[in-house]
């Protein structure tokens, strides 16, 4: 509990909300040890560590991750769109289409869907998979799945802009595509898990 108070003080005086919020988790761990002992803490260690994922990333870390994701999504979209008949010219995170330029803004970097999908992948693996190796693999696989899914979302937006209406790059269709792609990401994660189970069973049969 003393450690939690120290972290809270450092966070408050350093104007770092991440530390202030993390102090709550440390405090819960300290209270668990104080009232129930180390054995109970070990039993609830995963749910307790899972709470770390509810704490927003520090702004400096968030910005360092967001911009590379914007560039990666732009590159992936600019590579895929010509195969679908849409000529593009990419300049940084701006994809110039014949109809209009399409900017991959910070909100379209996919960082939020990546964090959400990783969180769900960890929970999914913990609840539905006993093998630690597959749990780790599912959590790691959520990153490329989220990146590819976000790239496909931008490709879909580019196709709407080019072949339908430039106004569709914003508003309902833009928001709906985010939900739709996230559902697709979850389906891809589930299919990956089923493939891993299939190959594990094949391996056991062969052995």
Strand order of the largest sheet: 1-2-3
Percent range of helical residues: over 70%
Principal-axes geometry comes out as: flat
In angstroms, what is the radius of gyration?
21 Å
What is the structural class?
A: mainly alpha
**Domain unit count:** 2
Q: Summarize the main sheet.
A: 3 strands, antiparallel
Give average pLDDT, whole number: 79
The low-confidence parts are: none
Number of DSSP strands?
3
Output the number of helix runs.
Answer: 8
Strand fraction equals under 5%
Order of helices and strands: HHHHHEEEHHH
- C-alpha end-to-end distance: 51 Å
How is the topology of this model organized?
Blueprint: H1 2-13, H2 17-36, H3 38-43, H4 45-50, H5 59-80, E1 89-91, E2 94-96, E3 101-103, H6 111-128, H7 132-163, H8 172-206
Antiparallel strand pairs: 1-2, 2-3
Helix pairs in contact: 1-2, 5-7, 6-7, 7-8
Polypeptide structure, described:
By secondary structure, this protein is mainly α. The protein has two domains: 2-52, no CATH class; 57-206, no CATH class. It contains eight helices and three strands; from the N terminus they run αααααβββααα. The protein has helices spanning 2-13, 17-36, 38-43, 45-50, 59-80, 111-128, 132-163, 172-206, and strands at 89-91, 94-96, 101-103. The protein has a three-stranded antiparallel β-sheet with strand order 1-2-3, covered by helices on one side. Strand 1 and strand 2 form a beta hairpin. Helix 1 packs antiparallel against helix 2. The longest helix has 35 residues, at 172-206. The chain starts with a helix and ends with a helix.
């Amino acid at each position: 509990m003393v450690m939690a108070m120290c972290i809270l003080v450092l966070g408050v005086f350093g104007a770092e909300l991440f530390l202030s919020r993390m102090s709550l988790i440390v405090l819960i761990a300290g209270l668990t040890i104080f009232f129930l002992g180390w054995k109970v803490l070990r039993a609830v260690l995963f749910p307790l560590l899972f709470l770390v994922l509810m704490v927003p990333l520090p702004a400096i870390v968030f910005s360092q991750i967001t911009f590379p994701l914007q560039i990666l999504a732009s590159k992936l979209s600019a590579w895929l769109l010509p195969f679908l008949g849409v000529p593009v010219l990419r300049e940084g995170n701006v994809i110039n289409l014949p109809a209009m330029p399409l900017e991959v803004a910070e909100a379209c970097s996919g960082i939020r869907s990546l964090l959400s999908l990783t969180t769900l992948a960890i929970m999914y693996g913990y609840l539905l998979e006993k093998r630690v190796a597959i749990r780790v693999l599912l959590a790691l696989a959520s990153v490329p799945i989220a990146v590819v899914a976000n790239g496909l979302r931008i490709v879909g937006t580019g196709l709407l802009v080019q072949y339908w209406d430039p106004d569709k790059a914003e508003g309902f269709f833009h928001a709906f595509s985010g939900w739709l792609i996230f559902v697709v990401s979850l389906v891809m994660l589930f299919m990956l898990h089923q493939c891993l189970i299939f190959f594990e069973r094949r391996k056991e049969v062969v052995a």
